[in-house]
């Protein structure tokens, strides 16, 4: 099983801890109970109890918000993403490792012992999730002093940390506390335009990452609410900040699953790139090389697959590598149909999985489809969520003097 | 028994500002170990329980007594950060020349509490202008043997009651560890 390290980058109070707990609630608790969910996440017992306890405190209207995450805390949160077939066959797909830490690590000048570990995690991350604090973005849109300070201080430091990650690591952005925008009926397209216009840093990071990203990758700006507008009531306080009050209303998560699901195709797109292709024009090239190289990457697949018996594949290790193969194939299937490609004679996809247990194949396929459909539904609901080079071109045009 | 010196330490967030070294002992600043000192003093449950730790990152013998509790403003109200969350303060005393577990007498507790409280309120009144890291004034201390049996109960001063941290170990010790009681120098002994 592959391990992907994801670093969530956000200054203190941007909503990282609440997001992590809400994501686990959605994908690690409710998705498990829902037999129609073809994919869910599993965390080790200790991690799970800690996330469940945190979540319980957050959604309890009778207790105060937790204080900010202590700098002593450096909690690794490994999520195993599990596929579940219609017949309830389970297959572990891959593992995503998040870390919850104090946002002070990004903004402070005072180094401690854990800082080195954090910076290593940052540099070695396979994927980057940037948390843009909705409350501060809102004050930016409203041209408040706080918003200006956000641009020049917090956001700048967070984007500085993004630049520390490897150029090939896919980056996604989420705007946390999106319930604040829903209340004011502010749309994502507007927020995206204003953000890119206001922050040269953001436009710069988006541009440079888009240019170095895999040709099949999609960079997203995901509006997220970990709690929903019925549960939190914002109120302007004297010091200019929005104070959040717990109302006791219904908790409803919005899009907290999307950042994780967005990363999956990215990870494997990067992986497929490693198999050969490069360059932006190159989706065809990706597939051509994938076809050609598949035989090298999975040597003697056909032969090995031929003698696979049900007993052998259940012996753990082997099963994992089969799941990986099936997963790759399902992903390529998905990409092919998304880009309207029909199989050609060189296609080795069926060879790759020949003889592997059918129930596992079906489970993995179902999970991949489930994720693809979820992302599609998200894209339909938020057509402006994709960050593209055209967004930056539009920006350049609007900035030109008349 | 002997004398010693204690330096107040204070680490806290404000409403606008992130975690900052609001009071730092001179030797820590000199040794460029502010980050380590902040790490050492922070943490623990914010119920005021005292922690006592030997310090290894300064040359010589040092012991740090510390606790974390909710931050209160001058009206006694809970301070909240930008994210509406309650702010915590971590405060402590870095004591030089002491390797035994130690505890503070009420006078030393009061002096420390007074110093950290004043510094925190000053910080709150103008966070951006507060000169962090501010060096703290050392308190001259007098160390005597703390007697568990005869120690006066101090209901109003929950600081550093040794019973909180002094747990008899399962390991057989040749002699019970002596606990030191630190009083301000110049104060008459009880
Ligand atoms: N309206 C609204 N407020 C939220 C939401 N999520 C978090 N908040 C508020 O934001 C505050 C900060 O969230 P945290 O998750 O603790 O922030 P963090 O990024 O972990 O901060 P550090 O631990 O200090 O780095 C919470 O106490 C809530 O008041 C949300 O979905 N909607
Ligand atoms: Mg946190």
Structural features:
heterodimer; A: 402 residues; alpha/beta; Rossmann fold; 2 domains; 8-stranded mixed sheet; two-stranded antiparallel ribbon; 18 helices; B: 190 residues; alpha+beta; 4 helices; 8 strands; binds guanosine-5'-triphosphate; binds magnesium ion
How many structural domains does the protein architecture of chain A include? 2
Note the main sheet of chain A: 8 strands, mixed
Q: Report the order of strands and helices of chain A.
A: EHEHEEHHEHHHEHHHEEEHHHHHHHEH
Instruction: Summarize the helix and strand pattern of chain B as letters.
Output: EEHHEEEEHEHE
Strand content of chain A: 15-25%
As a percent range, the share of strand residues of chain B is 25-35%
Q: Number of folding domains of chain B?
A: 1
CATH architecture of the largest domain in chain A: 3-Layer(aba) Sandwich
Uncertain segments of chain A are: 275-317
Continuous helix count of chain B:
4
**Rg of chain A (CA only):** 22 Å
Report on the architecture of this protein.
The complex is a heterodimer of chains A (402) and B (190). Chain A is an alpha/beta fold and 402 residues long. Helices cover 52% and strands 16% of the residues of chain A. Chain A has two domains: 3-255, Rossmann fold; 269-380, no CATH class. Chain A is built from 18 helices and ten strands. In chain A, the strands form two sheets. Chain A has an eight-stranded mixed beta sheet, sandwiched between helices. Chain A has a two-stranded antiparallel sheet with strand order 8-9. In chain B, strands 1, 2, 3, 4, 5, 6, 7 and 8 form an eight-stranded mixed beta sheet that branches. By secondary structure, chain B is of the alpha+beta class. Chain B has one domain. The interface between A and B is medium-sized, with 29 and 23 residues. Bound molecules: guanosine-5'-triphosphate and magnesium ion.
């Amino acid at each position: 099983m592959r391990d992907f390290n994801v670093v969530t980058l956000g200054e203190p109070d941007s909503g990282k801890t609440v997001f992590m707990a809400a994501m686990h609630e959605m994908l690690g608790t409710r998705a498990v109970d829902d037999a129609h969910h073809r994919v869910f996440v599993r965390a080790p017992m200790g991690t799970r109890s800690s996330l469940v306890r945190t979540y319980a405190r957050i959604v309890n209207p009778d207790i105060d918000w937790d204080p900010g995450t202590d700098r002593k805390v450096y909690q690794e949160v490994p999520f195993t993403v599990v596929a579940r077939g219609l017949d309830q066959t389970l297959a572990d797909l891959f593992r995503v490792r998040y870390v919850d830490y104090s946002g002070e690590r990004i903004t402070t000048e005072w180094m401690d012992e854990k800082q080195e570990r954090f910076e290593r995690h940052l540099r070695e991350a396979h994927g980057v999730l940037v948390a843009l604090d909705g409350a501060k973005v809102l004050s930016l849109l409203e041209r408040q002093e706080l918003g200006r300070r956000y641009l020049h201080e917090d956001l700048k430091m967070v984007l500085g940390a993004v630049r520390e990650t490897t150029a090939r690591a896919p980056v996604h952005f989420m705007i946390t506390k999106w319930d604040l925008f829903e209340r004011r009926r502010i749309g994502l397209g507007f927020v995206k335009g204003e953000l890119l216009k206001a922050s040269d840093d953001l436009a710069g990071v988006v541009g440079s990452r888009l240019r170095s990203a895999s040709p099949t990758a999609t960079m997203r700006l995901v509006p997220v609410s970990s709690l929903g507008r019925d549960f939190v009531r914002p109120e302007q306080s004297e010091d200019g900040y929005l104070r959040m009050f717990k109302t006791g209303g219904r908790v409803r998560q919005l899009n907290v699953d999307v950042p994780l699901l967005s990363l999956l195709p990215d990870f494997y797109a990067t992986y497929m790139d490693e198999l050969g292709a490069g360059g932006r024009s190159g989706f065809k090239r990706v597939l051509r090389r994938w076809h050609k190289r598949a035989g090298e990457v999975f040597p003697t697949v056909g032969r090995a697959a031929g003698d696979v018996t049900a007993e052998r594949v259940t012996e753990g290790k082997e099963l994992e590598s089969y799941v990986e193969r099936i997963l790759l194939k399902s992903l390529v299937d998905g990409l092919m149909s998304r880009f309207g490609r029909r199989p050609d004679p060189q296609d080795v996809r069926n060879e790759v999985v020949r003889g592997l247990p059918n129930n596992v194949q079906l489970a993995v396929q179902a999970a991949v489809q489930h994720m693809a459909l979820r992302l599609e539904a998200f894209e339909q609901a938020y057509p402006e969520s994709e960050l593209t080079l055209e967004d930056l071109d539009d920006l350049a045009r609007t900035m030109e003097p008349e | 028994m002997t004398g010693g010196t204690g330096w107040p330490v204070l680490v806290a967030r404000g409403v606008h500002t992130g975690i900052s070294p609001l009071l730092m002992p001179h030797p820590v600043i000199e040794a460029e170990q502010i980050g380590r000192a902040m790490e050492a003093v922070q943490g623990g449950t914010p119920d005021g329980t005292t922690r006592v730790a030997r310090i290894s990152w300064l040359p010589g013998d040092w012991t740090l007594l510390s606790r974390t509790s909710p931050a209160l403003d001058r009206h006694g109200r809970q301070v909240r950060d930008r994210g509406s969350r309650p702010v915590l303060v971590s405060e402590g005393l870095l004591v030089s020349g002491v390797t035994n577990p130690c505890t503070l007498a009420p006078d030393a507790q009061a002096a420390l509490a007074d110093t950290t409280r004043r510094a925190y309120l000053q910080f709150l009144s103008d966070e951006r202008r507060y000169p962090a890291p501010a060096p703290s004034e050392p308190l001259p201390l007098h160390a005597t043997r703390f007697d568990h049996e005869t120690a006066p109960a101090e209901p109003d001063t929950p600081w550093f009651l040794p019973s909180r941290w002094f747990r008899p170990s399962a390991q057989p010790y040749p002699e019970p560890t002596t606990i030191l009681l630190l009083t301000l120098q110049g104060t008459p002994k009880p």
